[in-house]
Amino acid sequence: MNVGFIGTGNMGRILIEAFIESHALRPSSIYMTNRTLTKASNIKSFYPNTNIVRSPEEVVERSDLIFICVKPLDIHPLLLKLNPLLLPNKCIISITSPINVEQLEQLVNCQVARVIPSITNRALSGVSLLTFGKSCHRETKNIIEELLRKISTPVHIEDEVTRVSSDIVSCGPAFFSYILQRFVDGAVKETSITHDQAVQLASEMIIGMGKLLETELYTLPTLQEKVCVKGGVTGEGIKVLAAETGEMFEKLFKSTHDKYYEDIEHITQQFGK
């Protein structure tokens, strides 16, 4: 089986690297192209057996599964151009959230799926969000799920929770790395700890907390309970967090959803509905 990638920007590259390093795909089975071929060449410099082709059409001709890793507004014109080559035995996999599988199925005659990956997949961990179109054959579904299982925990989602799921899984690492950076900056500003030492301690703390959650020994609430001692230091810190965060996360999700609906409006103009 050959797998194609149209677009080798950040997320396209993450998927390619994760699939290769997890042994989900042989480098020689990967066909990739990008508007700027230098980006694809950079990947090939690390994985010489991967294949660079000069056009999306050639990716489609040579591949069974085709990951579409381009900007949302570029997908409609791209698929219109590629549709004559998208035979029923092939499957396109979009990685963008504003376009649903039903819209994709309006345009093409092949099988359709949507996968929303996360940067955590590069460490062969985290979640990937999965939605299949009605056109997708059972065998194809199994192949896609097995690929994703090599680099993540695949989770099926419905359209109504696409944005919030993506906020948590895909945007979450950026949100929480920002919070962690502010945590570190506060420690450095208010105490004599060095920046490097604070980063090391905070990073190891996050890794350890993730492993604790992975073991399911503790839930998020029980982690707080176990660390907080009545009348202790941690409790005082939690009071500050409760007061200062307020409705911060509610506002965060409102903001991401506002942008999402704005994107959907532009997409709807292209797709017609």
Give an account of the 3D structure.
The protein has helices at 10-21, 37-46, 56-62, 72-82, 101-107, 138-151, 162-190, 195-215, 220-227, 233-245, 248-271, and strands at residues 3-6, 30-33, 51-52, 65-68, 91-94, 111-116, 127-132, 153-156. It folds into two domains: 3-157, 3-Layer(aba) Sandwich (Rossmann fold); 165-253, ProC C-terminal domain-like fold, CATH 1.10.3730. It has eleven helices and eight strands. The chain is an alpha/beta fold and 273 residues long. It has an eight-stranded mixed beta sheet, with helices on both faces. It catalyses: L-proline + NADP(+) = (S)-1-pyrroline-5-carboxylate + NADPH + 2 H(+); L-proline + NAD(+) = (S)-1-pyrroline-5-carboxylate + NADH + 2 H(+).
Properties at a glance:
273 residues; alpha/beta; Rossmann fold; 57% helix; 2 domains; 8-stranded mixed beta sheet; 11 helices
The main sheet orders its strands as 3-2-1-4-5-6-7-8
CATH C-level category of the largest domain: Alpha Beta
What structural class do you assign from the helix and strand content?
alpha/beta
Sheet-strand content, in percent, reads 5-15%
* Largest β-sheet summary: 8 strands, mixed
Strand-helix topology:
Blueprint: E1 3-6, H1 10-21, E2 30-33, H2 37-46, E3 51-52, H3 56-62, E4 65-68, H4 72-82, E5 91-94, H5 101-107, E6 111-116, E7 127-132, H6 138-151, E8 153-156, H7 162-190, H8 195-215, H9 220-227, H10 233-245, H11 248-271
Parallel strand pairs: 1-2, 1-4, 2-3, 4-5, 5-6, 7-8
Antiparallel strand pairs: 6-7
Helix pairs in contact: 7-8
In short:
This protein is 57% helix and 12% strand. The chain is α/β, with parallel strands linked by helices. The protein has 2 domains: 3-157, NAD(P)-binding Rossmann-like Domain (Rossmann fold), CATH 3.40.50.720; 165-253, Orthogonal Bundle (ProC C-terminal domain-like fold), CATH 1.10.3730.
